[in-house]
Design brief:
CATH architecture of the largest domain: Alpha-Beta Barrel
Helix content: 25-40%
Radius of gyration: 26 Å
Bound molecules: beta-D-glucopyranuronic acid
Catalytic activity: Hydrolysis of (1->2)-alpha-D-(4-O-methyl)glucuronosyl links in the main chain of hardwood xylans
Shape: globular
Protein name: Xylan alpha-1,2-glucuronidase
Structural class: alpha/beta
Keywords: Carbohydrate metabolism, Glycosidase, Hydrolase, Polysaccharide degradation, Signal, Xylan degradation
Largest sheet: 8 strands, parallel, barrel
CATH class of the largest domain: Alpha Beta
Distance between the termini: 31 Å
Number of strands: 16
EC number: 3.2.1.131
GO molecular function: hydrolase activity
Length: about 700
C-alpha cells in the first residue's frame, strides 16, 4: 500500500463482521436519479466488493431481505412511499434507516437532494469501515455550513505555492481532452468528507485562467467533479480587465470595468452553468485591488458580486491584508480595514478570514474579526498544507489546532458565542456560510505528501461539515479507516496525533511566539533575521527579544491589538495575570526573569524547558511508531518511520538554533539538566535552507 486509497481503502472485514454485514447488503435498489445517485451507487458497489467481496446486484424492487434502497422522494417511489422525516435535512443532509419494505428487511439512504444520497452512501460505508452495527440504523445528519471549500494554491504551470505533495493535480496541458482518472478519485475523497467546492487556482492569481481556452479546461474539470456534488471556483485577478481585457483601468467604480466583469461572468456561466464564483486576494502582498484606485474592499467585492449575482455565484473576498505603511502591528490591519465595512457588502459576498490575525502560525489566538462583523457572512480560512508547521515531513495533526480556534469564545455578542457559532449562524436565512481550507493535495501517490497529512485533509472536511466536531473523534475514525481497527493500534496512533500539535508549538514557537521561520521557505528556524526590507517580514519584529526580555506587547500599553477583541477578552488577553499561557508572548513583552504561572519558572527557563519538551515529544512519537511495526503494512510504516526521523532531527535543529540565538540575547545560563546547543550560533545561521522547497 502506498496511501493512494486514502481512508477509502475498503479492505476485507474480519469473519464475524462478514457474517453480520453480509445479510444486510444483498442488493442495491436505485430508481432513477442522475449522475450523483449513480456515483453513490458505484461507491456502494465498490465498498461492498472491497469489504465483503461480493457484487451488489441491482434490483428494481425490494425482493429479498438486505436490500439497500437509495434515492430522493422525487427519484424513487419506494423512498417516497416510506414518508421519511426529511424536512429538516436541507439539500445536502441524509437519513439512513433500517426499515421494512413489503415485509423485507432493508436499509434506506434517503435525502431531499442527490448530494445527500451520495453523502449517505459514504456514511453507510463508513459504518462498515468502523465496524458499527448496520442492522438497526437510524442516522440523520446534515452539514452545518453551506460552502465547504478547498483552496488550491495551484499555478497554471502546475507549481503549487506552499505545496509539499508534488505538482498540481490539474494537468492543464492534457485538458480538456484527457481526464486523468485521479480527478474522479479526488472527487470521491472530497465527497466522502462533504467538501462541495474547490477553487482551482492560486490566490496569487493569473488572469490567463479567465481566457476562453482555459475556461474549456476548467469546464472539463467541473464535469469530472459535478457528479460528486463539487462546484468549481476560480481566483479572479483584480487587474484582469487591464491584463486580458485591454482596458486602461481596473477601477471597480468605472462602468467599463464593471461591464467587463459582467460580460466575463456571463461568458463563464455559458461554459460552466454551475460555476461557483470567485475567490479574491486583493491589495495584499503585491496583488492588485480596489485600494489601487482609492476604493474600498467593499467597492471591489461588490462590483464582482454584481457580475455573478444573476447566475447565483458568490465572491469570497479575503481579509488577509497587511501593508508596509502599517509597521506598528501587522496583527491589527485586517480588523482595522474590514470591520468598518460591516453591512456594506452585497448579499453574495463572503469575507474569508484566516484563523489568526498574522498568518497560519503554529499557534495563534483566533482572529478578532470573528464575531465583529455580524452583518457580513464570514468564512473561516484554515491552511491544511503545513507551510509553517514543518511541511509534509513533520507529523502534525491539525484537528486539535482547528478545534482550539473553533471553540474559542468570541464574547460577541455575548459570552458563549464561539467562532464555530459565528460561522454557523447565517446573517439571514438566505445568506451563505462556509469554511475554506488551503489544500495539501498534489500529484504524489499519497496525495498529501505524507501518510499523516491525509488526516488533515480528512479532518478539515469533517470540521467544515460540522465545526463542533471533536478533533479526537475525527482522528480516531480516520485511523480506523486508514491504518487499523485494532484498539491498541488506534490508541497508540491517536496518542501520537493528539499530542503532535503541542509538540511542534513547543519546538518552534513556544509560549505565544510566532513567525520565527527563516526567510522565503518558512521551514527552518531564523529568529535572528532582522535585515529584510519591510519590518514585519523579520522574525525579530515578532519576538522583540532584547537584553531585557521577549514578546510582542499588544496590551493597552503596547499596540493595543487586544482592543480589537470583545471587552472581556481585551481584559483577559491584556492582563499578564489573566492571559492564557499559550498566548503569553503573543500579547506581552516580558522580562526574562518573569515568573511563569503554571511552573513558577523564569520565562527564560520555561522557554528552554518547552523547546526540550517538544523534541522529547517527537522522540516519544518515534518510539510509539517503532512499536507498531508489525501492526501496519510495511511500506507506509517505513515511510512514517523515516519522516519521524527527519522530524526528530529538525525539531532538535529548531531547539538548538532557537536556544543559541535567544541565549545570545538573554545572556542567561541554561537551566540545570538542559544541554547547551552543540554548535555556536553562527553555525545555525549558516544553514540556509535544508533543501526546502521555496514559495
Ligand atoms: C502566506 C504565504 C503566501 C500566501 C499568503 C496568502 O506565505 O504564499 O500567498 O499567505 O495567504 O502565508 O495569501
Amino acid at each position: 500500500e502506498d496511501g493512494y486509497d486514502l481512508w477509502l481503502r475498503y479492505r476485507p472485514v474480519e469473519g464475524e463482521w462478514h457474517k453480520a454485514y453480509d445479510p444486510a447488503v444483498t442488493a442495491l435498489v436505485v430508481q432513477g436519479g442522475g449522475a450523483t445517485i449513480a456515483a453513490a451507487a458505484a461507491e456502494l458497489e465498490r465498498g461492498v466488493k472491497g469489504m465483503l467481496g461480493h457484487r451488489l446486484p441491482r434490483t428494481g424492487s425490494v425482493a429479498a431481505d438486505g436490500a439497500v434502497v437509495i434515492g430522493t422522494p422525487a427519484t424513487s417511489p419506494i423512498v417516497a412511499a416510506l414518508g421519511l422525516p426529511l424536512a429538516g435535512l436541507g439539500d445536502e443532509g441524509y437519513l439512513i434507516r433500517s426499515v421494512t419494505i413489503d415485509g423485507r428487511r432493508a436499509t434506506v439512504i434517503a435525502a431531499n437532494g442527490e448530494k445527500g444520497v451520495l453523502y449517505g452512501a459514504f456514511r453507510l460505508l463508513k459504518a462498515m469501515q468502523l465496524r458499527e452495527r448496520i442492522d438497526a440504523l437510524d442516522i440523520a445528519d446534515a452539514p452545518k455550513l453551506k460552502l465547504r471549500v478547498l483552496n488550491h494554491w495551484d499555478n497554471l504551470d502546475r507549481h503549487v505555492e506552499r505545496g509539499y505533495a508534488g505538482q498540481s493535480l490539474w494537468d492543464w496541458q492534457k485538458l480538456p481532452l484527457h481526464l486523468d482518472p485521479r480527478y474522479t478519485d479526488y472527487a470521491r475523497a472530497n465527497a466522502s468528507i462533504g467538501i462541495n467546492g474547490v477553487v482551482l487556482t492560486n490566490v496569487n492569481a493569473n488572469a490567463e485562467i479567465l481566457k476562453p481556452i482555459w475556461l474549456e479546461k476548467v469546464k472539463a474539470l467541473a464535469g469530472a467533479f459535478r457528479p460528486y456534488g463539487i462546484r468549481v471556483y476560480l481566483t479572479a485577478r483584480f487587474s484582469a480587465p487591464i491584463e486580458i481585457g485591454g482596458l486602461k483601468t481596473a477601477d471597480p467604480l468605472d462602468p467599463a470595468v464593471a461591464a467587463w466583469w459582467k460580460a466575463k461572468a456571463d461568458e463563464i456561466y455559458r461554459v460552466i452553468p454551475d460555476f461557483g464564483g470567485f475567490l479574491v486576494k486583493a491589495n495584499s502582498e503585491g496583488q492588485p485591488g480596489p485600494n489601487d484606485y482609492h476604493r474600498t474592499h467593499a467597492d471591489g467585492a461588490n462590483m464582482l458580486a454584481d457580475a455573478l449575482a444573476p447566475h447565483g455565484g458568490i465572491v469570497m473576498w479575503r481579509a488577509f491584508v497587511y501593508a508596509a505603511e502599517n509597521p506598528e502591528d501587522r496583527a491589527k490591519q485586517a480588523y482595522t480595514e474590514f470591520q468598518p465595512l460591516d453591512g456594506r457588502f452585497r448579499d453574495n459576498v463572503m469575507v474569508q478570514v484566516k484563523n489568526g490575525a498574522i498568518d497560519f502560525q503554529p499557534r495563534e489566538p483566533f482572529h478578532p474579526l470573528f464575531g465583529a462583523m455580524p452583518r457580513t457572512p464570514m468564512m473561516m480560512e484554515f491552511q491544511i498544507t503545513k507551510e509553517y508547521l514543518g511541511f509534509a515531513t513533520h507529523l502534525v495533526y491539525l484537528g486539535t489546532m482547528w478545534e482550539e480556534a473553533l471553540a474559542a469564545d468570541t464574547f460577541r455578542p455575548a459570552r458563549g458565542t464561539t467562532v464555530a457559532d459565528v460561522l454557523e449562524t447565517a446573517v439571514d436565512a438566505a445568506a451563505p456560510t462556509g469554511m475554506a481550507g488551503v489544500a495539501n493535495i498534489g500529484s504524489d501517490r499519497n496525495w498529501s505528501g505524507s501518510q499523516f497529512d491525509q488526516a488533515n485533509w480528512y479532518a478539515y472536511g469533517r470540521l467544515a461539515w460540522n465545526p463542533q466536531g471533536g478533533a479526537e473523534a475525527i482522528a480516531r475514525e480516520w485511523i480506523r479507516m486508514t491504518w487499523s481497527g485494532d484498539p491498541a493500534t488506534v490508541d497508540a496512533i491517536a496518542g501520537m496525533m493528539m499530542g503532535s500539535h503541542e509538540a511542534v508549538v513547543d519546538y518552534m514557537t513556544p509560549l505565544g511566539l510566532a513567525h520565527l521561520m527563516a526567510t522565503g521557505h518558512h521551514y527552518g528556524p531564523g529568529p535572528w533575521v532582522s535585515d529584510l526590507a519591510r519590518p514585519e517580514w523579520n522574525p525579530a519584529y515578532y519576538h522583540k527579544a532584547d537584553a531585557a526580555g521577549i514578546g510582542f506587547d499588544r496590551s493597552r500599553t503596547g499596540s493595543n491589538a487586544v482592543a480589537q477583541y470583545a471587552p472581556e477578552l481585551a481584559d483577559r488577553f491584556g492582563s499578564v495575570k489573566k492571559v492564557p499561557e499559550e498566548f503569553l508572548l503573543w500579547f506581552h513583552h516580558l522580562p526574562w526573569d518573569f515568573r511563569v504561572r503554571s511552573s513558577g519558572r523564569t520565562l527564560w527557563d520555561e522557554l528552554v524547558v518547552r523547546y526540550d519538551r517538544g523534541v522529547a515529544a517527537v522522540a516519544a512519537m518515534q518510539a510509539r511508531w517503532a512499536a507498531l511495526e508489525s501492526r501496519v503494512d510495511r511500506r507506509r510504516w517505513e515511510e512514517v518511520r523515516d519522516f519521524l526521523a527527519i522530524q526528530r532531527e529538525e525539531a532538535q535543529w529548531w531547539r538548538d538554533a532557537s536556544i543559541a540565538y535567544f541565549q545570545s540575547v538573554s545572556k542567561r545560563p541554561l537551566p540545570e539538566g538542559h544541554a547547551a546547543p552543540p554548535m555556536p550560533l553562527d553555525h545555525y545561521k549558516a544553514i540556509d535552507n535544508r533543501y526546502a522547497p521555496g514559495n
